[in-house]
Amino acid sequence: MLDKLRESLADVQIIKKGDYSYFIHPLADGIPSISADLLNEIADEIVKKIPRCNLILSPEAMGIPLATAVSMKTSIPYSIIRKRSYGIPGEVCIKQRTGYSQSMMYVNGISNGDEIVIIDDIISTGGTIRAIIPALKSVGAQVKGVVVLFNKNHGAEKASQDLGISIESLVDVEVVDDKISFSIRQ
Questions:
Q1: pTM above 0.90?
Q2: Residue 130 resides in a domain
Q3: Tell me: the pLDDT tens digits for 64-77?
């Protein structure tokens, strides 16, 4: 099971951004290109993991293909947490800090009582999720869970414990001394 995913992980490159080891994968970086077969296989697995919700949210950029594919399979609408402000009334500003950068993100169209699942490509330090969850709660949204493709260096467990929310992943990834090891969750 998840043969396409397993194949895609066989040849990943690792690069350094400062002290941060970063692995290159089609669904985390768009390099090399994302095959429809790989995306379809992964979307099927994510669908099995998402709790009941009325909206899928995904941070820009690489969570978008995953959220799109899952939305198409489930008919659950999705929205994108953007990297730029539109200045729309009700826009929520999120200050994000990851393992290698910090920036602002913006979410629109979220209402009190929305039941949301967040889908993203990777969790490492948990900086993105740690910023998004309180912002959504501040407008009265209920975050039902988070599903990520890659759980790097146990980031999901740490963030889940800190935030008190379920964070599911498809693959546990460890990057040590510029080498990657992974285990696919079934």
A1: yes
A2: yes
A3: 999 999 999 999 99
